[in-house]
Amino acid sequence: MRHGNVNRKFGRESTQRKALIKSLGYSLVVKGKIKTTEAKAKELRPFVEKLVTLGKKGTIASRRELESRVGKIAAKKIATVLSPEYMNRKGGYTRITKLIKRLSDGAPMAVIEFVQK
User: Fold this and answer.
1) pLDDT above 80: residue 70
2) Residue 6: inside a domain
3) How does DSSP assign 10-32, residue by residue?
4) CA distance to 3, 12, 103, per residue, from 49 (Å)
């Protein structure tokens, strides 16, 4: 039974799925906004929001946790740039904007970006 298991599978094995989310999270943090499918954007949002919240703690342990989840470059940006910017905000650091469907396969597309302060 799959009670309570609401994660999207994306037709991938668990390791591939984790690598996909990690890669999308890295790209979002480094670039500020990315264009992807709507389902991937909706799955990415809670992952990135938790990273920013973790960065707000500012401890060495939280920085190491960030590095293990998205890599050294993205962790440094979260800890030094993004988290201090959202220190007074309790959540909702990202925004998903829907776009037109992709011409090749009709997949619904979206842009996910950080909300400007």
Assistant:
1) yes
2) no
3) TTS-HHHHHHHHHHHHHHHHHHS
4) 24, 23, 30
pLDDT digits (tens, 9 = 90+) for 20-57: 999 999 999 999 999 999 999 999 999 999 999 999 99
- Close Cβ partners of 92 (under 8 Å, ≥ 6 residues apart): 49, 115
List the CATH number of the domain containing 62: 3.90.1030.10
Residue 8 lies in a domain: no
Q: Which residues pair with 109 in a beta bridge?
A: 37
Total structural domains in the chain?
1
Q: How is residue 45 written in tokens? A: 């949002």
Give dist(CA 37, CA 42) in Å, integer.
Answer: 9
Inside any domain, residue 4: no
Question: What range does the domain containing 23 cover?
Answer: 14-114
Mean per-residue pLDDT of the chain: 95
